[in-house]
Amino acid sequence: MAADTISTHPPVLGMNPVPGQASDDRPAERQVEERDFTFAGFRYTCRVARGARPGAEPILVLGGSSQDRFSWTRHEKWLSHAHSVITVDLPGYGSADFLPATYGIDFLAAAVRDLLDSLELPRVHLVGACYGGAIGLRFAQHYPDHVARLMLVGMTTRIPDDYAAAMVRWDGMIREGQTETIARELADRFMSPPGTGRVRKHAAVARLVHQQIASQNPEQLRKSAEHNTRLMRHEWYRPEPVPHIPNLVVTGEHDTLTTPAMGRDVAACFPAGRFMTIDETDHLAPVERIADFADLVTRFCADRTLEGLSYAAEPESVAFAGAS
């Protein structure tokens, strides 16, 4: 059951502008609609920003675990020139219902399928960033006919051992309300350390990440703790067959969390995998170069050339390594 409303919601986690962001990066006025759905008893909410070309297949963005459906509003200015843009708070995230950790990525991929069915969309261009990339890849594995093109950003086939160990510690700290320490550690994890290389808006984005995590309310902290438990209980990547669909794996040039080498490993899972890096960015490339990232997405969705871009390395064709 769905309820349609025109979006008048105030900004929440992920909506804050990047300090120092140019004024022309502010999203223009556009028709925005929000709809609530229920899947397996859990309510979730999607945001649809209508594109200028109604017949074009929409872009569905699945963001990272600390993002919500408002985290991509600043990209809509560029993306909605040609496509409607759909973002979603899946069960367990954002303002959606709390989701116990017994439900894993298979369930969330099925919730994405429910979203497309509810919106009566046969196919979408799917962009999955970080945790959203894990859900997006699983969705493509299970429901390939619903994916026109797939872009994965900051994605890996395995959670680094040191990050997995840190999650165990963070889980206890979240439950004890130690948000300041966790915010500092997570900001350090997401951002490349000093000396790695030049990263656009590094200090401003680091402050934004810290602020968003440190300011979580009790319900957001509860969901964050459950998210960590979900990551520890369920497979991040499963070596199932990956469909032969147009794909692109993207990593920040200086990403130290999901490194370019890890991105190439993801691209190797596809029968015709493609990989590229975005210059002067790290794990938060979509925030550090908003307009450039949006340009890359629209080029990819329109099957335009990705060669010779001023903000990215040349695309690479990665040898297929099979589903494992």
Short description:
By secondary structure, the chain is α/β, with parallel strands linked by helices. It has helices at 76-79, 105-119, 131-142, 161-175, 179-190, 202-214, 218-233, 260-267, 285-288, 290-301, and strands at 3-6, 32-39, 42-49, 59-62, 85-89, 124-129, 147-153, 247-252, 273-278, 316-318.
Question: How do the strands and helices of this protein lay out in sequence?
Answer:
Layout: E1 3-6, E2 32-39, E3 42-49, E4 59-62, H1 76-79, E5 85-89, H2 105-119, E6 124-129, H3 131-142, E7 147-153, H4 161-175, H5 179-190, H6 202-214, H7 218-233, E8 247-252, H8 260-267, E9 273-278, H9 285-288, H10 290-301, E10 316-318
Parallel strand pairs: 4-5, 4-6, 6-7, 7-8, 8-9
Antiparallel strand pairs: 1-2, 2-3, 3-5, 9-10
CATH-defined topology of the domain at 26-159 and 234-318? Rossmann fold
Contiguous low-pLDDT stretches (5 residues minimum) are 1-28
Beta-strand content estimate: 15-25%
- What is the terminal-to-terminal distance? 39 Å
> What would CATH call the class of the domain at 26-159 and 234-318?
Alpha Beta
Computed Rg:
18 Å
Strand order of the largest sheet: 1-2-3-5-4-6-7-8-9-10
The helix count comes to 10
Would you report the number of β strands? 10
**What's the CATH architecture name of the domain at 26-159 and 234-318?**
3-Layer(aba) Sandwich
Main sheet properties: 10 strands, mixed
- Average pLDDT confidence is 89
Q: How does the overall form come out from the CA principal axes?
A: globular
Estimate the helix proportion, in percent.
25-40%
